[in-house]
Structure formats: C-alpha cells, structure tokens
Design a protein that fits this description.
The chain is an alpha+beta fold. The protein has helices at 10-17, 36-43, 53-60, 62-71, 88-97, 128-138, 185-189; strands spanning 80-83, 105-109, 119-121, 140-145, 151-153, 156-159, 162-165, 169-173, 195-198. The chain folds into 3 domains: 10-60, no CATH class; 75-145, ATP-grasp fold, A domain (Dna Ligase, domain 1), CATH 3.30.1490; 151-198, no CATH class. It is built from 7 helices and 9 strands. A hairpin with a 2-residue loop joins strand 6 and strand 7 (162-165). The longest helix has 11 residues, at 128-138. The mean pLDDT is 94.
Length: 202
C-alpha cells in the first residue's frame, strides 16, 4: 500500500521487496501463515525467515497436516474431510457415521486458526446444520473424535543439525462451564483466570 492508501501494483510490490536484505514475516493467519506470502517472496527471490511456501500450505491445513504426520509415522488424531464438492447428504452421512466408538466428535474448518468455528458435538444429528454452515464459509471441514487428556504445545525449529523441539508447554483449562469446552479464542487471547500454562509441564 502506498502512503496515500492506494494499493501497489504487483510489479511495484516486487520491486520494493527486492530492495530489502531480509524479510521477517510476522503476519498472522490467512496470507501470512498459509504460504501465500512465502510464495510471493520466493517468486521475487527475496530471502526471508521461516518456513517455505509448500510446507506452510500443508501446515495451515488441519487435514493435510495430520495426514502428512501420519504418513511420516507421527501419531495424530484421525480425521474425515468433508467438502463443498460433496452433496449435503454425503456430508451429513459422514458426520453421523464418523467414529462410532467416540462419544463426541469435533468439527472444524480445515484452514484457519485460533480455534475459531470449532464445535464439539455430543449429539451428531444436531451438528448437520452446523457442518453445512462451516462448509458454506470455508469449503473444507474436518471431523475428528473427541480426545481427552493433557493438552501440550511446543515449537519445533530448524537447527544446524536438524529439527529441534523446544520445551513443551502444558495448558490447563479452569472454570469450565461444561465438558465440551476447548482452548478457544477467548481462552487463548483474552485476559482471564481460565487458562494456566506450565513450563516445565507436570
């Protein structure tokens, strides 16, 4: 964007980018984390910090990411993908028949972050309308079984000798109003006493 607020032409943006020594992408969410920005920098041959475009595209998509981990031998929660290309009947059948051994299922957009539009369903029939709304907004939706246990997160960085995992962080949710509550947007970003973090984890 120029100083007067007008958009730059693509060639003007590339010319500006090629005038910098190094880019540190700090844009969160779509365009910044989904590989679009990285692809732009790669095509302009501008060096940048962080993961390349193709890996970002996989990591930003929850279904593709877990499928890639599973194929690499890394344990991951199984998932079923439903898409806008399927009929509403097929999507409904996928939801109603998914993971019959699980008491609850989780449905969420395949792409996006911050637990936005993540739903926990104990009554699957009540989720048919929800999944239709998600498909209309996002195009691709993942269905997974509800998993209980200790929630952890960690950062993996590329070191000189290969990937290095930093010390895991344990997440504890307090003041739950129901058993269906998750580490959602409010608990992640808004000030409260509802989320506690432990490093080292217990």
């Amino acid at each position: 964007m120029t100083l007067d607020g007008s958009a730059l032409a693509a060639e003007e943006l590339v010319a500006l980018l090629q005038g910098v020594d190094l880019v540190f992408p700090a844009i969160h969410g779509a365009f910044g984390e989904d590989g679009q920005l990285q692809a732009l920098l790669e095509s302009a041959k501008v060096p940048f910090i962080g993961t390349g475009a193709s890996a970002c595209q996989v990591a930003f998509d929850k279904f593709r990411a877990t499928d890639t981990m599973r194929k690499a031998g890394v344990g991951s929660v199984p998932g079923i993908l439903v898409t806008a290309e399927q009929s509403a009947t097929e999507r409904g059948q996928a939801l109603l028949g998914a993971f019959p051994e699980a008491a609850k299922v989780v449905i969420k957009p395949a792409q996006g972050g911050s637990s936005i539009d993540v739903h926990v369903l104990a009554d699957r029939s009540a989720g048919v309308d929800i999944i239709e709304g998600l498909v209309s907004r996002y195009g691709r939706v993942v269905i997974q079984p509800w998993i209980t246990g200790i929630e952890m997160t960690t950062i993996v960085m590329q070191g000189p000798s290969g990937p290095v995992a930093l010390i895991p962080l344990q997440i504890e949710l307090r003041n739950r109003l129901s058993d269906n509550e998750i580490f959602d947007y409010r608990r992640k970003y808004l000030a409260s006493n509802d989320s506690h973090y432990y490093c080292l984890p217990s």
